[in-house]
Amino acid sequence: MARLFLMVVSMLAQSPAAAQDRPMTATTQPIVIAHRGASGERPEHTSLSYELAIDQGADFIEPDLVPTKDGVLVARHENNIADTTDVAAHPEFAARKTTKTIDGQQVTGWFTEDFTLAELKTLRAKERLPQLRPGNQRYDGQAQILTLAEVIAIAKQGTRRTGRTIGIYPETKHPSYFASIGLPLEARLVAGLEQAGWNRADAPVFIQSFEVKNLQQLKGMTPVRLIQLMAPAGTPADGGPSYASMSTAQGLSAIAAYAHGIGPELTMVVSASTRYSTLIADAHAAGLKIHPWTFRAENYFLPPPYRSQGTPAAHGNLDAMIQYFIGLGVDGFFTDYPALGVSARSSAKAARPS
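Structure tokens predicted for glycerophosphodiester phosphodiesterase:
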């Protein structure tokens, strides 16, 4: 799939007029979703990252949610915090290093469900990708792990500070796994939104998940908009149809029964045969919004046509790549670099035929 994407984008890059063939048709501009905050410039899921993303113009900040031992939802990319905190430097927690099977995969490290919130608050966040983002390491040790309530507070403070409505776009991580160990996520998330006054249809909130049953459960618990995440291969951890089946017209129709939209990995948006996305058209035909993930600036993540000269950590032309996808008609997009996302959106709007 990755090789196919590189070939297709290479072809697209050789046809700069192609994006103009399919201008934006949405009546509103696509939303910029700050993926774990401004995670390209600050350690992810921290106040540093979220606040910078808001200042850069993001519409939504994205917390991945996992529970603590005492049932508090916190913002971490995974429940394994070995790579995102300084837990390994805390001798008092050395004995808690363990190996678990999560969604069929063996994982070794320290896990949020084995710590109380008070214990997690003694840790400090660090950069997860130091080889690609070495500059972010200067912020290591400066930020605590945040709770869902604290992320909501940052969004609300950002709204007051900027005059723009800042929303949150939480992902329920490994919901079936956490349900199996007695720490289900759904009721805790809904309660947090209720406390914030955001458990309503017009709340500035999207809830996303790679699993299906927890979204279906949430459909009966909250009117908040739900997003079905999709990967290029595989099947949701809670079983059911494959992601490939879910991306068909029939699969999208089934998703529309419980979700507001889909969040596909960005390579799923490209079609080798037509140069355009049938997924976008099919999603819209089913009444679904489409928010692909994840747009990153480093050469390591970019297809060859968008790379610059230099190392894998050097930045390429993310602006052009985002503009192309906006031209195809996406309704929003996840990016580690919200400033670049906002700039690309502005450029795409300026280039749109009047």
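The chain has one domain: 2-77+146-351.
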